[in-house]
Amino acid sequence: MSEAAYLQVARDIREQISSGQLKPGDKLPSFAALCEHYEVSNTVIRASMLVLKAEGLIDGRQGKGVYIANPLPR
């Protein structure tokens, strides 16, 4: 059985953070851009953001977007 789409998206973003492609304070693309990039629905992106937020990797700012957490959790 394959991994749920939202977990795949969360894993990909997590890998970009750990590899240094995405750095603390970087702004993530919009939900619409992420939907297009991963070819998934808004619901999938929303679920993956909840996972990353629970892990402390991202920080959502109302009306401003989603940013990589600064500092990152250890």
Automatic annotation (TrEMBL):
One of its GO terms (molecular function) is DNA-binding transcription factor activity. Keywords: DNA-binding, Transcription, Transcription regulation. Pfam families: GntR (PF00392). Residues 3-71 form the HTH gntR-type domain. It comes from the Bacteria. Signal peptide: none annotated. One of its GO terms (biological process) is negative regulation of DNA-templated transcription. InterPro entries: Bact_HTH_transcr_reg (IPR050679), Tscrpt_reg_HTH_GntR (IPR000524), WH-like_DNA-bd_sf (IPR036388), WH_DNA-bd_sf (IPR036390). PANTHER family: GNTR-FAMILY TRANSCRIPTIONAL REGULATOR, MANNOSYL-D-GLYCERATE TRANSPORT/METABOLISM SYSTEM REPRESSOR MNGR-RELATED. This is GntR family transcriptional regulator. It comes from Micromonospora inaquosa.
